[in-house]
């Protein structure tokens, strides 16, 4: 995993849980600038720091060695990050995750990571109404799954 992928994943998990950098830093026993640098793809975190962040974010730390993962990543756009901190977003994602039989926090983090890839594909930043239309579509799909 590349450094920027770690940062993207950390930001997605933090945003998905509606947390600020400061609250995660306090729970992890790390500094705000340290976490901000990690989220921006800078720094070289220790396993101990990553474990502390995982605990603070309510998730597990998994370290794997193997062939490079070709999965693309992109930074979470600011508009999407703001949206991810709202109560409405968390409720919508929880409903969609329930409909899909998935853990809401994990689903939220994966959703934010995948949604972050849309702006570069479309060649433009998406606005808040655009993100809500996308979430509404995901909610409809989760509620009316084909079996």
Automatic annotation (TrEMBL):
It comes from the Bacteria. GO terms for molecular function: DNA binding. InterPro entries: Cro/C1-type_HTH, Lambda_DNA-bd_dom_sf. This is Transcriptional regulator, contains XRE-family HTH domain. Pfam families: HTH_31 (PF13560). CDD domains: HTH_XRE (cd00093). It comes from Allokutzneria albata (Kibdelosporangium albatum). Residues 10-65 form the HTH cro/C1-type domain.
């Amino acid at each position: 995993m590349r450094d920027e992928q770690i940062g993207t994943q950390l930001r997605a998990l933090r945003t998905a849980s509606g947390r600020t950098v400061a609250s995660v830093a306090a729970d992890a026993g790390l500094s705000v600038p340290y976490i901000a640098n990690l989220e921006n793809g800078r720094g070289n975190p220790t396993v101990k720091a990553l474990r502390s962040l995982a605990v603070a974010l309510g998730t597990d730390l998994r370290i794997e060695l193997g062939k490079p993962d070709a999965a693309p990543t992109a930074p979470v756009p600011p508009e999407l990050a703001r949206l991810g901190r709202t109560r409405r977003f968390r409720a919508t994602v929880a409903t969609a995750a329930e409909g899909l039989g998935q853990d809401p926090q994990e689903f939220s983090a994966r959703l934010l990571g995948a949604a972050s890839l849309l702006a570069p594909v479309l060649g433009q930043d998406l606005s808040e109404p655009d993100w809500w239309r996308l979430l509404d579509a995901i909610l409809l799909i989760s509620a009316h799954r084909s079996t």
